[in-house]
């Protein structure tokens, strides 16, 4: 559904840019914001879905090998937990660094002022 809405918003924005209607400035900015938000949504949801599928693979191996080899089952459970944790952390980083203002704030707080100054100029 997100892909369909993203494509609809992109086509509306393209049509709006091709026309010369003077009363569409607010509509144009709303469409730009919608396209940007859905681009972030698609990025995060596709990454999260991939991590969930891989984590479910490890969870399935954990369930299958629980009676055969408890050590292997324990390792698969730890892999599942690690993937879920790292996936959540990476999703948070994607969200923070996707937005330019948030990226500059985080880089400045981390003391990486060289990158934040360069990024702030763009």
Automatic annotation (TrEMBL):
Keyword Transmembrane part of the UniProt annotation: yes
Matching InterPro entries: 7TM_GPCR_serpentine_rcpt_Sre
Keywords: Membrane, Transmembrane, Transmembrane helix
Record carries keyword Membrane: yes
Top-rank lineage group of the source organism: Eukaryota
Leader peptide range in chain numbering: none
One biological process term in Gene Ontology: sensory perception of chemical stimulus
A single Gene Ontology CC term: membrane
Family: Belongs to the nematode receptor-like protein sre family.
Name of the protein in question: G protein-coupled receptor
Organism: Pristionchus fissidentatus
